[in-house]
Design a protein that fits this description.
By secondary structure, this protein is of the alpha+beta class. Helices cover about 40% and strands about 20% of the residues.
Length: about 500
């Protein structure tokens, strides 16, 4: 697989400190972060945060992408006022896209991956390309909202008929900033239209399922140039010098894996946030039938790596509970909930964190209670017990994913790294260590932004040449917390019993 790198600047430049802006888009908010980098310096500050509120119109759930772009411009204005910027990079979520007409104009707000338009589409795709064959080619796990199924759901629509170009969300914002089009590799690998072994599109899959690959712009690799800020963008942000935009690992999980501060190759990672992405970093994809049945995906990372992982519902379960509870008269704080949950009975009630019933927004506490009752377990009686149920269930899902990944990839690990927002949740980190029977290293919480910055800094010759050197810089400069697993036989037996009580999906 190609692994292009930008030319390294002279060594003298490596010793200077530079500032980089990381635009990091999440499912509920976006932010612009500013990092200062040097040989033994890697600091990160938030310049601006803005909400990401989906909007339902005429029965379809959309992303408010213009509001996101306005937040990006505000963030760049704030970032530029703090220090001169060497470069800018954008990462965000995967699978969703915007369609452009022949003039380069957006044809409509992108549809949200949680919109039900793809219900039942995968089964129709499998009638033409059986699921096993599709996985053997693309290596991408089944998810109802994969780009492939979104495009099949959009077939026959006026928008798709008028489209000349399709840009994934980070690529769309890059286009608005620079006027240049491209499709970033790590995000492209999530579409279920690419061969992870070659890093190229799969024309046979696309042709058989009626997907026009000419809609996609040429593929860009992390670390390559993506253009410079347009004059209008400079005016809108108050930035004055020509500022390059650098292609980073634009799938936020790919950026987060860059920022795993591992000191050896024998590690597992869990990128936590709205989703938990748990798995291994490999050099070749695993596309066996057993891997497909275990619902593992093979997505591309930097430097020719494979992100072999399972997608777990993640802290979405707790986020939705908090949204429900926050509508009440006495909304509990997350900090108080975690303290109370730590004192709640362990492993009393468990749910399958991969259950599609938990995917839509809505009254999550009610759905969790009903799921417990349906499996003969006591329903949580209050927010603290519901929180404990969620975190116990997530820890069990993390355990299963890491055990399965090791078995399927024939690779053993001796440490689990938790990065992303869940690294700030000490109860989840400790429960994951206990469930896996492995030490957990938590942090950095801002992994996606840090991975974004590190790829930029390497492209500009300011950070060492390979991902191991970047990770060594993280290990030296970031605050990390270590959690040792409970080593007593009673704890191990309790988790074994929990695994038997909640069968794997």
């Amino acid at each position: 697989m190609p692994n292009p790198r930008s030319r390294t600047r002279p060594r003298a430049h490596y010793r200077s400190h530079h500032h980089f802006a990381a635009i990091d888009l999440g499912a509920s908010s976006g932010r612009v972060m500013v990092a200062e980098t040097g040989p033994d310096t890697l600091t990160l500050q938030e310049a601006h945060r803005f909400p990401n509120r989906p909007v339902r119109t005429a029965g379809t759930l959309h992303w408010d992408v213009l509001s996101l772009y306005a937040g990006v411009l505000d963030g760049l204005r704030a970032a530029g006022s703090a220090a001169p910027l060497t470069s800018i990079g954008i990462d965000g979520w995967a699978v969703d896209y915007g369609l452009l007409d022949a003039d380069g104009t957006l044809l409509g707000n992108p549809v949200h991956y949680r919109d039900p338009r793809t219900d039942g589409v995968a089964a129709k795709a499998w009638e033409t390309v059986p699921a096993a064959e599709l996985y053997a080619t693309t290596g991408v796990q089944y998810a109802p909202f994969n780009t492939l199924y979104q495009l099949m759901a959009a077939r026959g629509s006026a928008q798709l008929a008028a489209a000349e170009r399709l840009l994934l969300i980070p690529d769309l914002l890059t286009y608005w900033l620079t006027g240049e089009i491209g499709t970033e590799l790590t995000n492209a690998s999530t579409t279920q239209l690419m061969d992870p072994g070659t890093g190229e599109w799969s024309p046979e899959v696309a042709a058989r399922l009626g997907i026009d690959l000419s809609l996609f712009a040429p593929v860009r690799h992390p670390g390559t140039p993506a253009g410079h800020l347009l004059p209008q963008v400079l005016d809108d942000t108050g930035l004055t010098s020509p500022i390059p935009v650098t292609t980073v690992a634009s799938h936020d999980t790919a950026s987060a894996v860059v920022a795993v501060p591992a000191t050896t190759d024998n590690f597992a990672y869990i990128c936590t946030g709205t989703w938990s992405l748990a798995g291994l970093e490999l050099t070749t994809p695993v596309r066996t039938e057993e891997s497909r049945e275990a619902n593992f995906t093979n997505e591309l990372g930097i430097d020719g790596t494979i992100r072999y992982l399972r997608n777990i519902m993640g802290l979405w379960l707790l986020q939705e509970c908090l949204r429900t509870w926050n509508t009440g008269a006495s909304a509990p704080s997350l900090e108080a909930l975690l303290l109370e949950a730590a004192a709640a009975p362990a492993l009393r009630s468990l749910v399958d964190a991969a259950d599609p019933a938990f995917l839509p927004p809505g009254d999550m506490p009610h759905r969790i209670a009903r799921a417990c009752e349906a499996t003969g377990q006591p329903a949580p009686r209050n927010p603290a017990e519901t929180t404990r149920c969620i975190l116990d269930s997530l820890a069990l899902a993390h355990r299963r994913a890491i055990e399965d990944a090791q078995r399927l990839a024939h690779k053993s690990v001796d440490v689990v790294h938790i990065v992303g927002g869940g690294a700030r949740n000490p109860l989840l980190c400790q429960l994951t260590a206990d469930a896996c029977g492995l030490p957990v290293v938590a942090g950095p919480a801002e992994a996606a932004a840090l991975g974004n910055v590190l790829v930029q800094a390497r492209a500009h010759g300011l950070v060492g040449g390979d991902r191991h050197e970047m990770r060594a810089l993280l290990a030296r400069t970031q605050r990390l917390t270590r959690y040792a697993p409970a080593g007593d036989p009673a704890s191990r037996a309790a988790w074994e019993e929990a695994a038997r009580r909640v069968p794997a999906a």
